[in-house]
Amino acid sequence: MFNLPKYGDGLCLARLSQLLDALSIDRIRLRKHSVVVTGSNGKGSTAAFCASIGRAFGLRTGLFTSPHLYRFNERFQIDGVPVDDELLEALVLRVATAIADLKQHTLDEVFGAFEAQFALACLYFQETECEFAVFEAGIGGRYDPVRLVGADITCVTSVDLEHVNLLGNSLELIACDKSDACISGGTVVYGENCLPMRSNLAEYNRNRNVTGLHVGAEITISNVFASAKAQAFNCRLGAFDLRALELMLAGEFQLNNAAIAAALFILWMQRMHPDATTSAIDHAVRTGLRDTKWPGRLEIVQRDPLTVIDVGHTPDGVAQALKSLRAIHGDDNWLLVLGVSGDKNVDDIAKHLAPNFDTIVCTRAYHKGADARVVGAAARKAHPAARIHVANAMEDAVRLSQQLARAVPRKIYVAGGLFAAIEYATVLRGGKAQDLVFF
């Protein structure tokens, strides 16, 4: 979209600050009206929940997320609607022109594509006068573009071993990096799997006077009820006792994401709209969570045979999704379609999935997919007794898995990587996986 490399040269913060200035972004307004979502897993769902709550309160709400699943426009939304093609083209031109001017006159550095997209989101939300904006981080927090939001209300949804060369080779280091998206004096809301690191995070944040609130401590989840159609739970944060909150998104892990989103909005409202009534905020949280739709997360893409996709792509992410899949749809009669991105640890992903399925179709996504034979070898190592099929093309994987599922019959679970899951759904619906354009 910007004809830029995925990553720029070194640290992006200084050059990106110059770009925001060139676009006349009001950084003070940006900070006041925004919250930032970081984490390893659950960022997209949490950001979507939070934006939906803001919209339910009646605020003009911007949402910046990545990656997109089907269309690039999905990354930039206002009130749940992706930016239209014509306006997106105009915004891209303005950002690209500003980058070119900087490089010609003052700056000899290479911008990354995500940096340009972040700047575009800032410009879009400012010019459309968004009252509330939710920014999802890319990789970390310390050096991520979202640090320039200057938000004093942020979150770390979860941490997993990912991008260790950049973020650090332990969960504690990764959690600390992502915490740095929050400015001094702010508050970070931590997901439940950060709770064991609570004391370390408190010391890390102490000198910046950053407060940490943790799901499982200051934020509690109770009275959980789940079915194949919905989930319900109670959530308490300070004076807010939110009962019988409903989610249409599947997966027990979404309770963590929803609780974080509610906390982010409540904290932001207490700062920006201290006169808002508890009942009005309660209504917004309740309505926003219930109305949130976010594709790709344990999404049913076909009923007969039942076919479910999940875009999780870290070990903890795939493990949590599998646990919820079985709780919702049962343990038995599943067939796995497994595809893993080439930049991931194929063996690690396979060992979390393969042992739970006796029939596995291994495939390769057109976009960044690991070789299907490599995936097959990893699945065989993880589960030697399983029947392993290798389908080199996604079209073959769809055809074969559907045939196998109808013959027994079985249910189909497509997991292991974002690109594999989305390509499978696209082909199943009659589209061409090659036509998808990912960043």
Provide the structure class: alpha/beta
What is the domain tally? 2
- Our measurement of the CA-to-CA distance between the termini, rounded to an integer number of angstroms, reads 9 Å
Share in β-strands = 15-25%
Looking across the biggest beta sheet, what order are the strands in? 4-3-2-5-1-6-7-8
Mean pLDDT across residues: 95
* Oligomeric composition of the shown chains: single chain
Rounded radius of gyration (Å): 21 Å
Judging by the overall fold, what is the CATH architecture of the largest domain?
Answer: 3-Layer(aba) Sandwich
Fraction of residues in helices? 40-55%
CATH superfamily of the largest domain: Mur-like, catalytic domain
Number of strands: 17
CATH class identity of the largest domain:
Alpha Beta
Can you count the helices? 15
How many strands, what sense, and barrel or not for the largest sheet?
8 strands, mixed
Q: Tell me the CATH topology of the largest domain.
A: UDP-N-acetylmuramoyl-L-alanine:D-glutamate ligase
Q: Uncertain spans, ≥5 residues at pLDDT below 50?
A: none
Taken from the alpha-carbon principal axes, the silhouette is globular
